[in-house]
Every structure is written in C-alpha cells, then in structure tokens.
From TrEMBL:
It comes from Exidia glandulosa HHB12029. This is CxC1-like cysteine cluster associated with KDZ transposases domain-containing protein. It comes from the Eukaryota. InterPro entries: CxC1 (IPR041320). Residues 3-63 form the CxC1-like cysteine cluster associated with KDZ transposases domain.
Length: 114
C-alpha cells in the first residue's frame, strides 16, 4: 500500500480510509486491519484478554507467509496501543449514537465518562 503523506492528509487519516488502524496517531510505523481489531475485541469478550498471545500468534502467522519480520516486544506494544485506541474510539462512537438516539446532547470530551 502506498501513502502520500502531507500536512493536509496525515498517514493515520489515509490508513483509516483504507480500513487500517494506525499504531500511532503521527508517523505510524505499522497499521492493523480494522476487521482484525474488531475480531480481537470480540474474542477478548469471551476469553481473558491477552495482547502478548495475539502478537506472538500474528508474528508467527505472518512469518510463515514471509510477510513481516519478527519485531518482538515492539510489535506487541504497537498492537496493544492500536487495540486500546480502537476500542476507546469504538466505545465513544457507541455512546454518541446512544445519546443521539435518546435525543440527548453529546459532547466529545465527555463521551460516556462519569
């Protein structure tokens, strides 16, 4: 995938438009499929969440296909960060939709926070 980065269209925005979630909001070094992050999130609702196991499994899977070199601990951290923010944005979107359906005012800064 090729991205053309400029101040008017950051990498994170382009990745999201292509169905990927960046590992960092600025200068992401890796991106994960939104579908895969959704799958991990759903899976984590039914078993103990374990980003380390997911990272190890994904690295082994991709290595067998010669797709990604083993990146060790940094991969786990990037997956964990992407998953954390994906889940937070998903939660905020759910709160916003619920509040709009109820006719309640919605403010991004307090999206479901007590």
């Amino acid at each position: 995938m090729t991205l053309y980065i400029c101040a008017c269209r950051p990498a994170a925005e382009q990745l999201l438009a292509k169905g990927f979630f960046p590992s960092a909001p600025r200068r992401p070094s890796l991106a994960f499929s939104l579908n895969m992050l959704e799958f991990i999130t759903l899976h984590s609702m039914n078993v103990a969440p374990n980003v380390t196991a997911w990272a190890s499994t994904l690295q082994q899977y991709w290595a067998r296909r010669h797709m990604v070199a083993n990146q060790g601990e940094t991969f786990r951290k990037r997956l964990g960060t992407a998953l954390k923010w994906y889940q937070e944005l998903e939660r905020r979107a759910e709160v916003a939709v619920t509040q709009m359906l109820r006719g309640e005012p919605f403010a991004v800064s307090d999206a479901g926070r007590s």
